[in-house]
Amino acid sequence: MIDNIVSPGHSYKIVFSCYEVRMSHWIEQPHLIRVSDSKIVFSLNGASWSAFKVQWHDDETVFMRVSKYPGRISLDITLNVNRDAGSAVGEFKSFSGTLSQVSNWILAL
User: Fold this and answer.
1) How far is residue 19's CA from residue 57's CA, in Å, rounded to a whole number?
2) Averaged pLDDT, groups of 10, the chain, 109 residues long
3) pTM above 0.90, yes or no
4) Which candidate, 69, 101, 71, places its Cα nearest to that of 86?
């Protein structure tokens, strides 16, 4: 199981829902949570998206590289909580919008 990844100023954290889909293959589904009230501000819940890289740029901006299981779709996601804005970039597709719009776009892939 992966530990939470906390932003530099401890205002936000990435929490993972982890579950096994095949022997020795785990989905590590990311959820962006505001620490002050435990509110989920971004989530890929409901589909098999797994994060394999998470990096905070500052206290409000996080980068995640995710891939969908099964399949070979991978995306680079950048989210800024303060601006309620994000982008998702893949090999042939990209999208920018609010955090909710980005989540919905990814979940529809």
Assistant:
1) 27
2) 89 92 83 98 90 96 94 93 98 96 95
3) yes
4) 101
